[in-house]
Amino acid sequence: MSGRRTAGARPRGEANICTADYAELIALWHGGAAGPARRLGAVLARLSAVLFAEPNPAVIKAVLYARGRIPAPAVRLPLLAASGDVVRRALEVVRAPVHRGQEGALM
């Protein structure tokens, strides 16, 4: 399977963490604003790196739970819960002031 999305394809897990920022990235790129898109893309790449530091979807579910977006961070066996250290790092990236200079810009 290629890395290209097809019609009806599900978005990647990290887009559930900061949906507006992924939408902005796409809008910037399609609008020809390559510089701002690359800067935002670099921030989102750091987020992706920490979200996938442990088996998917453990870290994503833990971050969604910590932010009150889902009722529990549980994953099914054979997966194990995400480690606290990785979840803390992911939450730091999500909460860091970024591209717009606003506190908590990644939402």
Automatic annotation (TrEMBL):
InterPro entries: Aldolase_TIM, DapA-like. The keyword tRNA-binding does not apply. Keywords: Lyase. It comes from the Bacteria. GO terms for molecular function: lyase activity. SUPFAM superfamilies: Aldolase (SSF51569). Gene3D superfamilies: Aldolase class I (3.20.20.70). This is Dihydrodipicolinate synthase family protein.
